[in-house]
């Protein structure tokens, strides 16, 4: 482990202890919840959309709440900041590599489900909002 990795570890701990955008939105465009039963992680994402001047749906605000391990909660905190200003299409194009890059540390296969939970919740929420998916709850089991 080099110094770079230590820096990222510090960043993960900082997001875990001082989560950004923690809470719930008063008037979210969509809300979705998910869990990672393997670890006991739970995430709720509230997303407020706005339409930009080109008619694209853009993420105006994100709030998350939840409970779980440092990786899952830090990932949700970082993602909530990262998503602000992105279009819904950009959100849907994200994959697990984007989350791993964002966290900046090697994620073991066991912990990858912790890392991607928030991203899955946000993406499934967006697809349900667009009527492309029917789901009560996202789980990393599928
Ligand atoms: Zn976890």
From TrEMBL:
Q: Which CDD domains match?
A: IscU_like
What does the entry give for GO biological process? Answer: iron-sulfur cluster assembly
- InterPro entries, from UniProt? NIF_FeS_clus_asmbl_NifU_N (IPR002871)
Single GO MF descriptor: iron ion binding
Q: Known Gene3D superfamilies for this protein?
A: 3.90.1010.10
Superkingdom of the organism of origin:
Archaea
Return the SUPFAM superfamilies for the record. Answer: SufE/NifU (SSF82649)
Pfam families associated with the record: NifU_N
Residue ranges occupied by any NIF system FeS cluster assembly NifU N-terminal domain in the UniProt entry: 7-133
Q: NCBIfam families under this entry?
A: SUF_scaf_2
Write the protein's name.
SUF system NifU family Fe-S cluster assembly protein
- Organism this protein belongs to: Natrarchaeobius chitinivorans
């Amino acid at each position: 482990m080099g110094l770079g990795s230590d820096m990222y570890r510090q960043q993960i701990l900082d997001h875990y202890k001082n989560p950004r955008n923690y809470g719930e939105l008063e008037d979210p465009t969509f809300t979705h919840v998910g869990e990672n039963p393997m670890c006991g992680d739970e995430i709720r994402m509230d997303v407020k959309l706005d339409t930009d001047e080109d008619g694209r749906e853009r993420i105006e605000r994100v709030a998350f709440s939840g409970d779980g391990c440092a990786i899952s909660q830090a990932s949700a905190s970082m993602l909530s900041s990262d998503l602000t200003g992105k279009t819904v299409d950009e959100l849907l194009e994200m994959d697990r590599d984007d989350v791993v890059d964002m966290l900046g540390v090697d994620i073991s296969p066991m912990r990858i489900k912790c890392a991607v939970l928030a991203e899955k919740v946000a993406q499934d929420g967006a697809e349900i909002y667009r009527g492309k998916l029917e789901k009560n709850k996202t789980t990393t089991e599928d």
